[in-house]
Amino acid sequence: MNVKVSELCLSYGSQTVLKDVTFELNRNQIYGLLGRNGAGKTSLLSILASFREATSGSLTINGEVPFENSAIMQQVALFYNKDYKDESDNVMAVLKDMHRYRPHFDMDYAEYLVGRFKLDPKKQVKQFSKGMQAALNVILGLACRAPLTIFDEVYLGMDAPSREIFYKELLKDQEEHPRMIILSTHLVSEMDYLFDEVIILKKGEVLLHEDSHSVLSRGAAITGNAAVVDEFIQSMNLIHVQQLGDTKSVMVYGELHDDERRAAREKGLDLAPVSLQELFIHLTEETHL
């Protein structure tokens, strides 16, 4: 599976939602799509899933334009926080409908997941709680096994134990049936271990697209005497500052080389890694970049 996005733009009248978005995905792995509210995540995913067309730019999936392309659209599935208030069918009927239209759908696995999430297969979906409806969306997404499977905050309404089941099943099934998965989420600290690569959107533009290890290796927290810290970080990309008395803690983004780490220790400075959530928060702040 190959997804190539080039200078993609989306506008509603005078409002620009996506601006010159460019990236390429070509591995069967899990991609984390991060961005603050209004960054354009859902709009981008809806274009990838052919729910709408971009204003300009190009998108190809396996070298073809996916919009109104039935062969490609069968390979892509987007699952989101769907409201089932008008759905009179029970769980099994919903699964059978999905099985009918999705060529990779695994009914046995879907029924296993129904039991895993403790859903009543004969109960009308509209009678389920919000968390149970979210679990059904997760079941459909996992069992469909589309070569490109997209989850847009599909977990909304699920409690922590149910989300943990989702994460475990996702990793297990990805290992046994590899495909390209995109996870859009605000639960960065809870889901960061799932991501092989990270894409961060800021105000409709791609802020960064890198493998998770590379992103984390470029972030560091430096703490010590304020004057020493200030001298040490003069040429570094500073993204956050905290100070209490003479002690200062800063967060920098940019790889620290071995000689810099050695120099920091010699100056009595403490170096610590930072989490993906911390980097995400500070890199997407209005005052940064």
What is the topological layout?
Blueprint: E1 3-12, E2 15-25, E3 30-35, H1 41-48, E4 56-61, H2 70-73, E5 76-80, H3 91-101, H4 107-116, H5 130-144, E6 148-152, H6 160-176, E7 180-184, H7 188-191, E8 197-202, E9 205-211, H8 212-217, E10 219-225, H9 226-232, E11 238-244, E12 247-253, H10 258-266, E13 270-272, H11 276-283
Parallel strand pairs: 3-7, 3-8, 5-6, 6-7
Antiparallel strand pairs: 1-2, 1-4, 8-9, 10-12, 10-13, 11-12
Helix pairs in contact: 3-4, 4-5, 5-6
Description:
This protein has 289 residues and is of the alpha/beta class. It folds into two domains: 209 residues, 3-Layer(aba) Sandwich (Rossmann fold); 66 residues, 2-Layer Sandwich (Alpha-Beta Plaits), CATH 3.30.70. Helix content is 34%, strand content 29%. It is built from eleven helices and 13 strands.
Structural class: alpha/beta
Distance between the termini: 33 Å
The largest β sheet comes out as:
6 strands, mixed
CATH architecture of the largest domain: 3-Layer(aba) Sandwich
Counting DSSP E segments of at least 2 residues, the number of strands comes to 13
Helicity range of the residues? 25-40%
Q: How much beta, percentage-wise?
A: 25-35%
What is the global morphology? globular
Briefly summarize what is shown.
This protein is α/β, with parallel strands linked by helices.
List descriptors.
289 residues, alpha/beta, Rossmann fold, Alpha-Beta Plaits, 2 domains, 6-stranded mixed sheet, 4-stranded antiparallel sheet, 11 helices
